[in-house]
Amino acid sequence: MSVSTTRPTTSALWRDDHPSGDRLFQPIGDLVVESGEVLPDVVLAYETWGRLSPSRDNAVLVEHALTGDSHVVGPAGEGHPTPGWWPGLVGPGALLDTDDFFVIAINVLGGCQGSTGPASPGPDGRPWGSRFPRLTIRDQVTAEARLADALDIPSWHTVIGGSMGGMRTLEWVASYPDRVGTAVGLASTAYATAEQIGWSQTQIHAIRNDPWFAGGDYYGHPQGPEVGLGIARRIAHITYRSEMELHDRFGRDVQDEAPGESGRPRYAVESYLDHHGGKLAARFDANSYIVLSEAMNSHDIGRDRGGMAAALAPFTGRLVVVPVDSDRLYPPRLSDEIARARPGTEQAMIRSVVGHDGFLTEVDQVAALLGQVVAGRPLVDTRSRSETGHGGAV
């Protein structure tokens, strides 16, 4: 197994002199992406928990969402600006029990937490910036397959992902059906819908129209497009939450006076969005946000494969799709489409008032569902009779 622990220079947040935390780094060579461009000397950052079995059949891949990274579990600290985004789900005796499984999470290609992305040095030593190639979800999965090859992992016991991570999970099934035993897609879709693309485009425009964006070549400037990125995050965060959750949580409560706007009240929901916008702008690269958003817009497992059913047909493993009932960005109908396209697909439902983010916040429900899956037990269908048309498990 070839593993590199040399820390490369990568993103705006990731410099050669920064601590690597729990990350490992794996060079995977040059990558020809779908656009035809060559991305040279690609490096992927990843984290692992547990040990790979002698038969190399216990590897589990956890795919993160848009602004996530490889730090699935663990505290914030040196090298990790935020704590793990799925607390309690990986470790000794946990759902993904590291006494049994070798768990890997990869920072996605194009990201900004250690993998090659727009802020990485290009061939001339300057950050790629505006020159970084356009990526697709397929490109990202191709890169992940290269990393699996480098680690001598012939196939995954299970691939699990939510939102953008669910897109990559389904693309693994379509691109490498013989390398996945079980696939679990949470709050996700087999293709980006018109509405999802529309929301994404709005966020991209917010970043590109920031005067400090500089066409994407803002590295080394005294300021970057933090305002535009913050606006993008505010837009996105509204779609991640349900109307009822925002109503119940904030209503029309006024928190304080709007900064710089004497006499105008700042509603509590505005303060909430301001907080999340500022928080992301402090830890994420704006170019990566654009690259990853456009990759999500490209997502369609049926593209050039004869449609969704044809794309899923070669997969003989176990496919599980789990939407969130209140998700307005990735509504349950999209998971239903996957199940109709691929007979034998198992379904369940996360119940939450939260909306799309329910796959992250409803940890107990997610743990119960995934516990059934990783144990190889039949999935108990948590949809209602009216949703399924019947009452039994799928």
UniProtKB/TrEMBL annotation:
EC number: 2.3.1.31
Amino-acid biosynthesis as UniProt keyword: yes
Record keywords, A-Z: Acyltransferase, Amino-acid biosynthesis, Cytoplasm, Methionine biosynthesis, Transferase
Residues of the active site: 163 (nucleophile), 327, 356
Biological processes annotated in GO: homoserine metabolic process; methionine biosynthetic process
MF term (GO), any: homoserine O-acetyltransferase activity
Predominant location: cytoplasm
Catalysis performed (reactions): L-homoserine + acetyl-CoA = O-acetyl-L-homoserine + CoA
Ranges of residues in domain AB hydrolase-1: 59-361
GO cellular component terms listed in the entry, alphabetical order: cytoplasm
The UniProt record lists the keyword Transferase: yes
The organism's place on the tree of life at top rank: Bacteria
Pathway info: Amino-acid biosynthesis; L-methionine biosynthesis via de novo pathway; O-acetyl-L-homoserine from L-homoserine: step 1/1
Enzymatic class: transferase
Compartments in which it is found: Cytoplasm
Cited NCBIfam families: homoserO_Ac_trn, PRK00175.1
Function, as annotated: Transfers an acetyl group from acetyl-CoA to L-homoserine, forming acetyl-L-homoserine.
Summary of subunit composition and partner proteins: Homodimer.
The protein's name in its UniProt record: Homoserine O-acetyltransferase
Organism: Janibacter hoylei PVAS-1
Lineage, highest ranks first: Bacteria, Bacillati, Actinomycetota, Actinomycetes, Micrococcales
